[in-house]
Amino acid sequence: MKASERCLESAMRFDDQYSKLLLRMIAADSMRHADVVSQILSWIELPQGQTMTLPRKEFLDAILQIEDKAGEVSLRETVRVSHPVARLLLEWIDFDEKKHERIIEKMAQIIHRGRD
Questions:
Q1: CA torsion angle for 51, 57, 60, 61 (degrees, to 10)?
Q2: What is the secondary structure of 22-80 as a DSSP string?
Q3: If you average pLDDT over residues 89-107, what whole number do you get?
Q4: Neighbours of 23 (CB within 10 A)
Q5: Under 8 Å CB-to-CB from 111, ≥6 apart: which residues?
Q6: Residue in 69, 113, 110, 73 with CA at minimum distance from that of residue 90
Q7: 70 vs 55: CA distance, rounded Å
Q8: Where are the domains of the chain?
Q9: What gap in Å lies between CA 114 and CA 116, rounded to an integer?
Q10: In this predicted model, what pLDDT tens digit does every residue of 19-32 receive, in sequence order?
Q11: 104, 63 in Cβ contact below 8 A?
């Protein structure tokens, strides 16, 4: 939480809009991470009778196809900008697309193992 607050405070000091955006994106990520950890901790405290309901493999395959198409085009390589921080922002999106694909593939593996 402190990281997100510091990034938001720092963003206010920059005149450069790209740098402000990058710091706000980092702050938003930090807040999402804190939210995920908080939610996981609250679920751990629930009674142990919880069942795991995973999405169907067909659903994940469809999502994976969408992510694969999004990952085929590297924004950093196709969108030409001279501002170095703007290039970092595009690289961030490219990394996120690759991350989405990897995570969905891992989730599909979990589902496959769970049904064997």
A1: 170
A2: HHHHHHHHHHHHHHHHHHHHHHHTS-TT----PPPHHHHHHHHHHHHHHHHS-HHHHS-
A3: 89
A4: 21
A5: 54, 55, 56, 57, 60
A6: 73
A7: 21
A8: 1-50, 52-116
A9: 6
A10: 999 999 999 999 99
A11: yes
Which residue's structure tokens are 């142990």?
A: 48
Residue 33: both structure tokens together: 């991470």
User: Does residue 4 contact residue 67 with C-beta atoms inside 8 Å?
Assistant: no
Q: List the structure tokens of 25.
A: 């994106």
pLDDT in tens, 41-67: 988 887 776 666 778 878 888 887 877
What is the number of other CB atoms lying within 10 angstroms of the CB of residue 41?
Answer: 9
Question: Would you state the structure tokens that stand for residue 69, as one six-digit string?
Answer: 């198409």
